[in-house]
Design brief:
This protein is an alpha/beta fold. It contains seven helices and five strands. The protein has a single domain, classed as Rossmann fold (3-Layer(aba) Sandwich). Strand 2, helix 2 and strand 3 form a beta-alpha-beta unit.
C-alpha cells in the first residue's frame, strides 16, 4: 500500500527501450510508478510481455494493460494486415505511424492518474532519433499538458498535472548510456515492429535500425535477440 505522502506517477510502458529507461528515470526521481501499457491491436504484441518483464524488474508498484481496439480503424502498418511494415525510413511520415495513438494512450494515462491522485505522467517519446511521428514532438506534449489541466477535475481544482518526456531531446546512444547507468536490462525489451511471438526482432524495420545504431554509437554490445 502507498502512503498518502508518496509521489505517484503513471508511466506509459510499451515494452521498448525508451519507455523502460523512462520508467527507471521516474523511479530514480522518487516516484511510486504505476506502469500502463495499451494493447491497441499492434502486430508486435510481444512488446506487452516485454512491458510486464520491465515493470517487474524496475519495481513498478503495479502494471496495468488496457485494451483499446485501434485495429478496427486501421490506417497503420502496425494495425492493418493490408499495409506492409517498411524496412527502412523514407521521406514523410512513415506507414508505421498509428493515427492518434499517443493522444489515446496519454488520455488513458490521464484518467488513471486522476483516479490515483497522481500529478505526473511519464512517456518515452523522443524527437531526436525517431521515425518522424507528429505525436512525438515537444509541441504535442506541451499541448496535451495544457489539455490535461483544462479537461480534468484535478486540473480545475488547482492540481497542476505534468506530462513528462525526459528523453525528448536525447539521442538513442544517450538513451542506451542512461539505461545502463540505471540498470535497465535492454535484453528484456522489444522494439521491433515485426517482432515474433517470442520477441525476436527482424533487424530490418525502422525501429530495429534506430535501436541498433544507438548501441553502435554508444559503443555497447547490442543484446537484442534477432530471429
Amino acid at each position: 500500500m502507498l502512503a498518502d505522502s508518496e509521489k505517484r506517477a503513471v508511466v506509459l510502458l510499451s515494452g521498448g527501450m525508451d519507455s523502460a529507461v523512462t520508467l527507471a528515470l521516474a523511479r530514480e526521481q522518487g516516484f511510486a510508478c504505476h506502469a500502463l501499457s495499451v494493447a491497441y491491436g499492434q502486430r508486435h504484441a510481444s512488446e506487452l510481455a516485454a512491458a510486464q518483464r520491465v515493470a517487474s524488474a524496475l519495481g513498478a508498484v503495479e502494471h496495468k494493460i488496457v485494451n483499446v481496439d485501434l485495429r478496427s480503424i486501421g490506417g497503420s502498418a502496425l494495425t492493418a494486415d493490408s499495409i506492409a511494415v517498411p524496412e527502412a525510413g523514407g521521406a514523410g511520415i512513415p506507414a508505421t505511424y498509428v493515427p492518434a495513438r499517443n493522444t489515446i494512450m496519454l488520455a488513458v494515462a490521464l484518467g488513471w492518474a486522476e483516479v490515483l491522485g497522481a500529478a505526473d505522467i511519464f512517456c518515452g517519446v523522443n524527437a531526436v532519433d525517431y521515425s518522424g511521428y507528429p505525436d512525438c514532438r515537444p509541441e504535442f506534449i506541451r499541448a496535451f499538458e495544457e489539455l490535461a489541466n483544462l479537461a480534468t477535475k484535478a486540473g480545475v481544482e488547482g492540481a497542476r498535472l505534468r506530462i513528462r518526456a525526459p528523453l525528448m531531446h536525447i539521442d538513442k546512444a544517450g538513451i542506451v548510456r542512461e539505461g545502463l547507468r540505471l540498470g535497465v536490462d535492454f535484453a528484456a525489451t522489444v522494439s521491433c515492429y515485426r517482432a515474433d511471438v517470442d520477441g525476436r526482432a527482424c533487424g530490418h524495420c525502422d525501429a530495429c535500425r534506430l535501436r541498433a545504431q544507438g548501441f553502435v554509437d554508444a559503443g555497447v554490445a547490442d543484446p537484442t535477440r534477432y530471429g
